[in-house]
Write a structure and sequence with these properties.
75% of the residues lie in helices and 2% in strands. With 371 residues, it is mostly helical. The chain starts with a helix and ends with a helix.
Length: 371
């Protein structure tokens, strides 16, 4: 009955739907930011959205969602385009340009926020919530706006899918085909700004960056996790969207069941847990699989070394008793039928007919490499 009451709760429904929309849009767009090596892009745009939020309040005198969206989109896009201009017209690298835009625009936002707090305007209450998000304040009308932005952005991405993919992986080739590379890059950047706008109400200016990309300092993101599970861009986008949705819904559910815990940070922590699991267990790329592969390669090398030595120098086998690793490999070779105990009653080993055949192949391969 408790779960039925929870599912029928108006606030919980709004938070879950909003978190799902956030994950749906931030995951795919984050993939393009990560693959374009612009991991700070979401960070810069999200921090640059704060001046837009403040300017919207100064102009309209209220925290109207429509004004907030327009203002944050304007300043976020301006910061992104400034970054592109700096990298094109100067010798600054992308990370340096992103860092400059992030710090300057966020500083302007803090100054404007301080100015608003000094005006004693009664409507300013809760304005600072845009720093860390206030998911519980999401209204059904906000969801329609968020859903419209998400649908528009993903539709635009689907229409220009081939162009976006080519520019992301080989911009020079796309330019040689006559594609407007600068315009496509600007469009991708603007779409990331739209994703930031969608997440402002849910997780805020500070934490929205983590839903777009993966700042190495503290949090990773759906795109980083999806990169571990797929080698193809299409699969990566689908997985990133799924991880984003799961993170949003899980964070919202935990926040609702545990009174007093903020939704935004819980969404990020859930995504972090998924990324840690992905980094550890993803087939072919996970740390666990890397460790297993390294162990198998090491074991195969030891096997070849032992077979080579026993074939060339049979009397040397008694010296392998000193190391634990060698004893393990010797025992395994014995189980596989490559070795037997020496017939002289000593502690040495001798090759079987199967082992001698394998040793000859190892010796031939080694001598071929040497020559």
């Amino acid at each position: 009955m408790q779960w039925l009451d929870l599912l029928s709760d108006y606030t919980f429904q709004n938070v879950v739907i909003g978190a799902s929309l956030l994950g749906l849009i931030s995951g795919p767009l984050g993939c393009f930011a990560v693959l374009r090596r612009q991991s700070l892009l979401g960070d810069a745009i999200s921090h640059a959205a704060l001046p837009g939020v403040c300017l919207s309040f100064i102009i309209t005198g209220s925290r109207d969602m429509g004004g907030v969206i327009i203002g944050s989109l304007a300043t976020g896009s301006l910061a992104a385009l400034t970054m592109l201009l700096l990298t094109r017209k100067s010798r600054l690298k992308t990370d340096a340009a992103l860092g400059i835009c992030l710090s300057i625009f966020f500083a302007i936002g803090i100054v404007l926020l301080t100015y608003i707090q000094g005006t004693n305007n009664a409507s300013q209450g809760g304005l600072e919530a845009f720093l860390f998000g206030q998911a519980a304040a999401t209204l059904r009308s906000d969801l329609w706006v968020m859903g419209s932005i998400t649908l528009f952005t993903l539709t635009l991405l689907a229409i220009f899918w081939k162009q976006a993919k080519l520019v992301t992986f080989d911009g020079q080739y796309a330019r040689s085909l006559g594609m407007p590379v600068n315009a496509i890059e600007a469009a991708l950047t603007a779409m990331v700004a739209l994703a930031v706008v969608v997440g402002l109400q849910m997780v805020g200016v500070i934490l929205m960056a983590a839903m777009i990309v993966a700042p190495a300092a503290m949090i990773v993101a759906p795109a980083a996790a999806a990169r571990q599970w797929s080698r193809h861009l299409g699969g990566m986008l689908v997985i990133a969207a799924g991880i984003g949705i799961v993170s949003g819904v899980s964070g919202a559910t935990i926040s609702t069941l545990s009174r007093g815990l903020a939704t935004g940070p819980l969404v990020i922590l859930t995504a972090t847990a998924i990324v840690i699991i992905s980094l550890a267990l993803a087939p072919g790329r996970g740390l666990l699989w890397g460790f297993i592969k390294h162990y198998r390669q090491k074991e195969a090398l030891q096997k070849q070394q032992l077979l080579y030595t026993l074939y060339k120098h049979p009397s040397a086998s008694r010296h392998y008793r000193a190391t634990f690793g060698a004893r393990m490999v010797l025992s395994k070779l014995k189980r596989q039928g490559y070795l037997i105990r020496s017939s002289d009653g000593g502690a040495g080993w001798a090759l079987t007919s199967r082992g001698e055949k394998a040793a000859k192949q190892v010796v031939a391969t080694f001598e071929e490499v040497v020559t």
